[in-house]
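JOB MANIFEST
job_type = single_chain_structure
chain_count = 1
residues = 382
[input]
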Amino acid sequence: MKVWVVSHTYVVAVHHDKLRMLGALDDIELTVLIPENWETETATVRLPHMRFPYDVVVSRIARSGRIGAYRYLDCAPLRRARADVVHAEVEPWSLAALQLVRAAAGAPVVLFTWENLEGPRRLISRAIERYVLRRVAHVIAGNEGARARMLRRGVPDPHITVLPQLGIDVARYAGGHAARARANHTITTGGQVHSALRSLGPPIVGFIGRLVPEKGVDILVEAIERFDARLLVIGDGVARAGLEARTSTWPAGKATFTGAVPEAAVPDYLACMDALVLPSRTTASWAEQFGHVLIEAMAAGVPVVGSSSGAIPEVIGEAGLVFPEGDAAGLRAQLAALFDDPALRKRAVERGRARVERLYTNERIVRAQRAIYAQVLAERGR
């Protein structure tokens, strides 16, 4: 079957791990349509020049980075392709969803959505969503909240599957080398130079992600301030300066801010951590939609602690600890429980790895996607 996958997600090279596996299936002829760039809070991201075992079509884009307003300027290849299935990873209320449903030219559309809150929507966005959802063949919801939202919008339950957008290559994250990360972060104490991330000393509690208010890193800072642990923050964003200021009086080596690091280096930093925390907080328009770093840490053998925001508890499941969002004392108590109980820590590591193998590998997600494609084609009598 000829499958076109359309998403801005694949301007990031590591996200092609899933697509390589999908494209390797004997019964799928894969083409991927991506924008030429994608604007984030801190950078303009472009796919590096690489060779892929499937066709990658790059389109100019209008309003890059704006989930509801961006659109592709070069959709003619999709219209001409006569695809069997178009897999569009776009929110159903977005201009891109409207555009791609039309550009599919009669091919069944499988739509992926993360949206797990109702949120304020303009009249035009609500109208687009009604139009799009009447025309898609199947919806993949990235979390249970998104599934519930689609049910409320009238999508029949048999036409909804809960499935992450991306899985992981377990070997990639299990194969990190802490020494490579430690070499980049040295401090001097007592006249001696050593790594701030050395294995000796208090445990290292890490965060990886965007440094923006909704990610709740200030709650993590508050929890660690009066706790015998070191803080490792990986990422960048508008909240970084304030967070660094809050930790500026801490002892040398207690807090390390690396800024953004290459995706390929993430396993090395995970290998330095004794726990990873995702302390997200819900806002009027956003709740954590998955928290991909949680499954990366589980695969790396790092225990995870997450807030109660959005999909975090369903991603962690039985494999880690959860605290009430915004509650620094609650987070501190969970960290204390983890570090004071070796048996609990061992269970978290074992259950995390098992949960990833069972639910979150690229292989599992690709199998599920292929089954959805076959289902929609069977329903169309094709």
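[summary]
The mean pLDDT is 95.
The longest strand covers residues 29-35.
exit_status = 0
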